[in-house]
């Protein structure tokens, strides 16, 4: 499909798989806040968690890739669940399936949205260490200033649509991913990588396979998939690809291959070079001492600059993904119409402004770990419901007539069901338990409060909109060619 617009007045089809990939390439940077966090709980076994989590991403994204070609006008995970659960015809004002589909989209929005606040805080922290003039500036003021500057910059860049954002993505991919890989490969070249740091510290000496430790492991998997499975964001731009049937699978699986290499490489390089004690000495920035060891005196400064570029890139990824999730929800009648309004270039500016203001409030919390923990709850819910949506789409005869140019291997509905149950309830229980150990109940309460806010917004949107027949753009039996 090469039409300029996905629907009249809707998101514009202006990008190909390379541009979608460029935007999604910020995902590998999501490992940075978790290197020390994971090592503190499971030492070198963190490498295995990343391997299994990226593998989980491939298993889930086979399903999402098929959904993307079944519903080429749906906007990624937020659109798929709404399309599957919200297609019951009739004149019911409050449709439970529609509510469930919208809640999945809201969960996904909440999973990506706080990335802006988390990395705005980290940018401010790194700038304070890099620029002496910032030393006297209060932390909160610097965090808010860095967030405001980055958000306004990205809104200007993306005002004319995704093509400009993808161009920025190409630039930042070079500035962030290349140095990330170079710094990780350097210890192997210089001989400072020691395999014994991995094999001799596989798991903590007091680790036992009891219920509490298994819950910790499940919680870590929930946190890991927030990073290692997040490359499904390449599918969220389904309505904006020129040819979604081929562009979506290409963008998804090439990004997945890149994530597989980088997540394993970065964690292994840090562990083998610094050892567990060295990582825990710099739990928030272990890449800095590794760069200084392998690249010389200028390595630290270069690494900080690289990390700032990488953080801007992942903020760009989250900003675009979250704004299109809100557009998708409003377009489906699951959020007030205000969030679905776009400028003349097909950019959901209202949603972007709301998201920026929302994250400025999050920055005031000043605690990235608590924000991330709450965000992971939303991501677990979104993945679980979306995988169940895939199972429903495979077995419900109402969807049998839809074209599926890209198909997951045979029997994939059983794989999707297994990983859906792994997300809900197992990973959800695990991350709640891990949150209770790490930051108390605050992040869990915040997570569930934000998720619950969807209920009044949804009922308001149902009263705002007249009872609608099934949307033509997502209807069963729609000609998706």
Automatic annotation (TrEMBL):
The keyword 4Fe-4S does not apply. It is a multi-pass membrane protein. The chain crosses the membrane at residues 21-39, 45-64, 106-127, 133-156, 168-191, 211-231, 252-281, 301-322, 343-363, 369-391, 412-434, 440-460. It is found in: Cell membrane. Keywords: Cell membrane, Membrane, Transmembrane, Transmembrane helix. The keyword Lipoprotein does not apply. One of its GO terms (cellular component) is plasma membrane. One of its GO terms (molecular function) is transmembrane transporter activity. Gene3D superfamilies: Amino acid/polyamine transporter I. InterPro entries: AA/rel_permease1, APC_superfamily. Its main location: membrane. This is Dimethylamine permease.
């Amino acid at each position: 499909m090469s039409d300029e617009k996905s629907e009249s007045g809707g998101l514009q089809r202006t990008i190909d798989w390379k541009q979608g990939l460029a935007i999604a390439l910020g995902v590998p940077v999501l490992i940075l806040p978790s290197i020390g966090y994971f090592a503190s709980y499971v030492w070198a076994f963190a490498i295995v968690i990343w391997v299994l989590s990226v593998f989980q991403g491939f298993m889930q994204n086979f399903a999402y890739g098929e959904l993307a070609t079944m519903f080429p006008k749906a906007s990624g995970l937020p659109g798929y669940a709404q399309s599957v659960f919200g297609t019951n015809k009739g004149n019911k004002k409050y449709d439970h399936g529609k509510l469930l589909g919208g809640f999945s989209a809201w969960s996904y929005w909440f999973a990506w949205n706080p990335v802006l606040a988390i990395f705005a805080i980290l940018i401010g922290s790194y700038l304070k260490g890099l620029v002496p003039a910032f030393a006297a500036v209060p932390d909160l003021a610097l965090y808010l200033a860095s967030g405001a500057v980055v958000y306004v910059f990205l809104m200007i860049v993306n005002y004319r649509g995704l093509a400009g954002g993808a161009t920025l993505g190409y630039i930042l991919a070079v500035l962030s991913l290349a140095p990330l890989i170079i710094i990780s490969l350097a210890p192997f070249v210089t001989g400072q990588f020691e395999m014994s740091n991995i094999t001799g510290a596989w798991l903590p000496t007091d680790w036992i396979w009891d219920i509490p430790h298994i819950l910790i492991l499940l919680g870590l998997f929930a946190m890991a998939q927030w990073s290692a499975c997040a490359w499904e964001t390449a599918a969220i731009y389904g309505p904006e690809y020129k040819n979604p049937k081929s562009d979506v699978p290409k963008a998804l699986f090439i990004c997945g291959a890149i994530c597989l290499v980088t997540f394993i490489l970065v964690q292994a390089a840090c562990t083998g070079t610094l050892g567990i004690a060295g990582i825990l000495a710099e739990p928030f920035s272990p890449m800095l001492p590794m760069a200084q060891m392998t690249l010389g005196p200028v390595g630290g400064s270069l690494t900080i600059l690289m990390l700032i570029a990488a953080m801007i890139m992942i903020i760009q990824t989250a900003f675009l993904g979250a704004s299109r999730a809100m557009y998708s929800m409003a377009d489906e009648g699951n959020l007030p119409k205000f969030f679905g309004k776009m400028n003349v270039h097909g950019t959901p500016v209202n949603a972007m402004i709301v998201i920026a203001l929302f994250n400025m409030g999050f920055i005031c919390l000043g605690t990235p770990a608590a924000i991330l923990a709450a965000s992971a709850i939303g991501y677990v819910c979104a993945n679980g419901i979306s995988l169940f949506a895939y199972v429903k789409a495979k077995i419900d005869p109402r969807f049998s007539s839809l074209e599926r140019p890209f198909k997951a291997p045979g029997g994939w509905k059983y794989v999707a069901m297994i990983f859906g149950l792994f997300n809900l309830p197992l990973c959800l229980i695990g991350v709640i338990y891990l949150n209770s150990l790490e930051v108390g109940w605050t992040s869990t309460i915040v997570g569930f409060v934000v998720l619950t806010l969807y209920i009044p917004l949804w009922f308001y949107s149902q009263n705002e909109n007249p009872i609608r027949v099934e949307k033509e753009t997502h209807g069963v039996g729609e000609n998706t060619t």
